[in-house]
TrEMBL record, chain A:
One of its GO terms (molecular function) is ATP binding. This is ABC-2 type transport system ATP-binding protein. Keywords: Antibiotic resistance, ATP-binding, Nucleotide-binding, Transport. It is a peripheral membrane protein. Coiled coil: none annotated. Residues 1-29 are annotated as: Disordered.
UniProtKB/TrEMBL annotation, chain B:
Its main location: membrane. The lineage of its organism: Bacteria, Bacillati, Actinomycetota, Actinomycetes, Streptosporangiales. It is found in: Cell membrane; Membrane. It comes from Sinosporangium album. This is Transport permease protein. It is a multi-pass membrane protein.
């Protein structure tokens, strides 16, 4: 599946910039630096010339629709896939040429649950602690340290096969933390977990970032990224379409609007405001949506009877996402929910 | 050896042992079954040996090593499942993205089956020998050396199959087929003297033949370490061949399909 980077390909030029295996003596080395990374699966181009920089202690919410390329990006960073072009550096180390050194510096909790069901939670964590060179008491302490914030302490003796899905996902996440990597890649860590676990996990991530860990966190749940209050990277169709601190992006792209959902296709009425449709949703861009809403409704006239939902959209990550990808974040999900 | 390598291989071995302990039934069955089958095979081998004018032969001289050898080859499944189940649990990529180097992962996967093969051979020989009154005329150390070479050969054959098979179904069918075919051709399942004419010249092409030759040299002919040099060397050559196949075809990034 993986393709060797071809010799003399243009974008490989960037690799000469820093010598492999010779990370700068820390000061100023980004935890992660991608430059012009491109990845193709046969005819599908999953990533196109993606640049991304994550500083130590920074939390980056990696956002994008299904198939946008988030998992591909993380797999390349973890050395599971080779980029077709471009360069990757983890704390200055190239995972393609120095995979072992790079893997010491990063922890990956993949999107797909990967745990050992026949073993206990403790044994699952112990395995990764032992691979990190910890034994006996030291390993035990490290396991407790990881288990506590993940709410696994009481479950350590239980077999993973007998845990709930959300509990298994916490074990899965914990397995990536045991060697205390300075770069953490969490691919949808909150898929299928409850509100409380989600909060615990967000708290853990904030904690680790405060101690200097760089975190790349992919999710489909925008409020999570807002709660982490870090920065955001949005991929769409394999391209990095927005990158920056959350607040700055919201200021820059966060439009406000009134969103109207109809029982069928939205009526074709001329409106005095810019508007767009997406499925059964009509989005009317207005400055102060809570004041404009009554006037928007008036304009609908008889079509108002078809209306099933009205929503005030304030500048937020969601409206940023809409602007930069051209699609509502939950376009598909909402269509189902209203059906 | 690189720094930390021994520790990581030890971690992989302990991990594999924990997984084996969770499900010891297959190990027990693979040890008990040959002991039962020896009873069925013994009269056949006795007849063959008596026809060859071997003095005082009970049949155990070939039934015990024969079943021991055949069931060692069934351990190829153990080697294979060790890799395929990681793909099924989606932990293979976690291992790849983790701290163990590729060579360490392979070494960790081979070590436990190798130990199991040695242990199984020892138990089957000891228990079978006691149950069926096996009299070993030659030296025990020579038996151990043949057993060790056989175990290595079986485990590396398993790795070569893992390298060549994409699905666990392929692996299981080839492993079991090979175990039976090798046993049949190599004189573990039927006496070599009873093979049809076309099959006898093929016998030396299978590792089982050399394992059986090594064992019977010790058990029947009273051979010592020097007498088993040739069979041991051939078994090691087979092992080397399987190792080369593994190196040529096994790639950590290859997707393997287990149950799904
Ligand atoms: N092994 C593969 N072979 C071929 N195409 C692939 C493979 N893996 C991913 N793709 C394609 O690459 C693109 C990016 O996939 P990727 O898994 O990175 O998306 P994602 O952003 O993680 O999506 P999701 O939110 O659904 O997890 C998709 O178009 C996908 O179909
Ligand atoms: Mg994904």
């Amino acid at each position: 599946m993986t393709t060797e980077p071809g010799p003399g390909r243009g974008s490989d030029a960037g690799q000469g910039a820093r010598q492999d295996g010779e990370p700068d003596p820390y000061g100023g080395v980004p935890a992660l630096a991608l430059d012009g990374v491109t990845k193709r699966y046969g005819a599908v181009t999953a990533l196109r010339e993606v640049d991304l920089r994550i500083e130590p202690g920074e939390i980056v919410g990696l956002l994008g629709h299904n198939g946008a390329g988030k998992t591909t990006l993380m797999s390349i960073v973890a050395g599971l896939l080779r980029p077709d072009a471009g360069s990757v550096r983890v704390m200055g180390v190239n995972p393609v040429t120095a995979p072992h050194a790079a893997r010491r510096l990063l922890g990956l909790a993949p999107q797909e649950l990967g745990v050992y069901p026949p073993l206990t939670v403790h044994q699952n964590l112990l395995f990764f602690a032992e691979l990190a060179g910890l034994r006996g008491r030291t390993a035990g302490r490290r396991i407790e340290e990881i288990a506590e914030p993940l709410g696994l302490t009481a479950l350590l003796g239980r077999r993973v096969a007998h845990l709930s899905g959300g509990e298994q996902r916490r074990v899965h996440t914990g397995m990536a933390l045991l060697h205390r990597p300075p770069l953490l890649l969490l691919d949808e860590p909150t898929a299928g977990v409850d509100v409380q676990t989600r909060q615990q996990l967000l708290e853990l991530v904030r904690d680790m970032a405060a101690k200097g860990t760089a975190v790349c966190y992919s999710t489909h749940y925008l409020p999570e990224v807002e709660a982490l209050d870090g920065s955001v990277a949005i991929v769409s169709g394999g391209r990095m379409v927005a990158r920056g601190p959350l607040k700055k992006l919201v200021r820059q792209y966060g439009d406000s609007a009134v969103e109207l959902t109809f029982a069928g296709p939205p009526p074709d009425i001329p409106l005095p405001w810019p508007s767009s449709t997406d499925g059964r949703v009509l989005r009317v861009a207005v400055e102060q949506p809570h004041l404009a809403a009554p006037r928007v409704l008036e304009t609908l006239g008889g079509s108002a009877g078809e209306l099933v939902n009205l929503r005030i959209v304030h500048p937020s990550l969601e409206s940023v996402f809409l602007r930069v990808t051209g699609r509502r974040y939950d376009a598909d999900a909402e269509g189902d929910a209203d059906a | 050896m690189r720094e930390g390598t021994a520790g990581r291989i030890a971690a992989l071995i302990r991990h594999d042992l924990r997984l084996q302990m969770r499900d010891p039934a297959p190990l027990l069955v693979r040890t008990v079954m040959p002991l039962l089958l020896m009873g069925f095979m013994q009269p056949l081998f006795r007849t063959a040996l008596q026809a060859e004018n071997v003095e005082g032969a009970t049949g155990a001289e070939q039934a015990v090593p024969g079943m021991a050898v055949m069931f060692t080859f069934f351990l190829v499944n153990l080697v294979g499942f060790g890799v395929f189940r990681e793909h099924g649990w989606k932990t293979w990529d976690r291992l790849r993205a983790g701290l163990a180097r590729p060579g360490e992962i392979v070494a960790g996967r081979v070590a436990v089956p190798l130990g199991v093969a040695m242990l199984q051979l020892a138990v089957v020989f000891a228990a079978g020998g006691w149950l069926y009154n096996l009299r070993v005329r030659g030296s025990w150390p020579a038996l151990v050396v043949v057993g060790a070479a056989l175990a290595l050969c079986v485990v590396l054959f398993g790795m070569a199959l893992v390298a060549l098979c994409r699905t666990v179904a392929q692996l299981a069918v080839f492993a079991n087929l090979a175990a039976l075919l090798f046993a049949g051709l190599g004189g573990a399942l039927t006496p070599l003297s009873m093979l049809p004419d076309w099959a006898s010249p093929l016998a030396p092409a299978v590792p089982t033949y050399w394992a059986m030759r090594g064992f019977t040299t010790v058990v029947l002919d009273g051979g010592g370490l020097a007498a088993v040099l040739t069979p041991v060397a051939v078994l090691l050559a087979f092992s080397l061949g399987f190792a080369v196949l593994t190196l040529a075809f096994f790639r950590l990034e290859h997707r393997k399909i287990s149950w799904s």
